[in-house]
Amino acid sequence: VAAAEPVPERRSLLAAALPFTQALLAQVGRTLARAQAALAWPEGTPAVSPPPPPPPPCAPLSDADLRSYLGPGGRLLRPQDLRLHVFHGGVEPGLRKVVWRYLLNVFPAGLTGQERLSHLRLKAAEYSSLKVALAARAAPAELAQVAAAVRKDVVRTDRAHPYFGGPEEGHPHLAALQALLTTFALGHPRLSYCQGMSDVAAPLLAVLDDEAQAFLCFC
Prior knowledge:
219 residues, mainly alpha, Helicase, Ruva Protein, domain 3, extended
């Protein structure tokens, strides 16, 4: 392009545009200079240090780790440290049944080991009464509608897992999943049952192997 001889009309257009281009470049230069001056650190002001790197992943929570967070009588003394450990490292599979109840706030703060067992027995009895009362109080049409919506998901949730595998008829684990989700829906009529709740409740039931405790954790 530089070697080509422009025609007169094109030369006149370039000549007319040159002052505008020079003015635009000058304005850009002034704006850039102001931005650089505004962003420059004042003399003697230290730069802000970068945030510290996140802690490296740790090993999954073990039984010895869990005991280190407990005090006399089995009271949980360091709940925040326990949560951070699980967040960064997870939990050994054999401890999930115990630790998930801490993480999901099933226990009031400060309970001893014996008090936690008593609390679970009390809540299990309350759940049994609640399940019967809600089913009796609900209108037949409402109960049938909720049960059908829950059943549609229950029969296809984690059926490849050994805990939920096998024939549908008379399956105790499918019946427990159906019962806890139906009880939750009847007890929370404004929310009721939503598709996908079974995917949350099924792992809880499979790990805890207890309908009442899975209901507490799900809530």
